[in-house]
Amino acid sequence: MKSVVGLVVSNKMQKSVVVAVDRLFHHKVYNRYVKRTSKFMAHDGNNECNIGDRVRLDPSRPLSKHKHWVVAEILKKARIYVPPSADNAASAAVSNPETEAPVSSS
After folding, report:
1. Counting Cβ atoms within 10 Å, is residue 57 exposed (0-12), middle (13-18) or buried (19+)?
2. Which backbone phi and psi does 51 adopt, to 5 degrees?
3. Of 5, 25, 65, 84, whose CB has the highest number of CB atoms within 10 Å?
4. CA atoms within 13 A on the CB side of 100
5. How far is CA 12 from CA 35, 41, 88, 93, in A?
6. Which residue, among 75, 68, 72, has the nearest Cα to 52 in the 3D structure?
7. 37 and 9 Cβ atoms separated by less than 8 Å
8. Pairing relationship of beta strands 67-76 and 54-59 according to DSSP bridges
């Protein structure tokens, strides 16, 4: 087997990730390219992978019932959205009071 490149779709397990690998093949009857997705469980020893990361997998000996791959390297880290916390919002409001709407008292 050779190395494959895929996208991490789940990292909820300890030291394991699920990676979706897409492949294209030519369908002879339809004369079109068809995309198929395979999901592989892979070993991530340091829990470095997050959802959305692009990783390269290398084959290995069977590590468990479904794990036969190891994460060789993270090719591209995913951008993770971090919602603004209350402290950051309060400091932004104090530093720039012009952006706040005036409060009407009735």
Report:
1. buried
2. -65, 130
3. 5
4. 12
5. 26, 12, 29, 36
6. 75
7. no
8. antiparallel
In this structure, what token pair is assigned to residue 77? 């880290």
- The pLDDT, as a whole number, for residue 41 is 97
Residue in the structure block whose two tokens are 């992978």? 49
Query: pTM for this structure?
Result: 0.72
Residues 51-82 have pLDDT tens digits of: 999 999 999 999 999 999 999 999 999 888 77
Q: Which two tokens stand for residue 70?
A: 């190891």
The single residue listed with the structure tokens 């791959």 is 69
Residue 75 tokens, joined = 């090719």
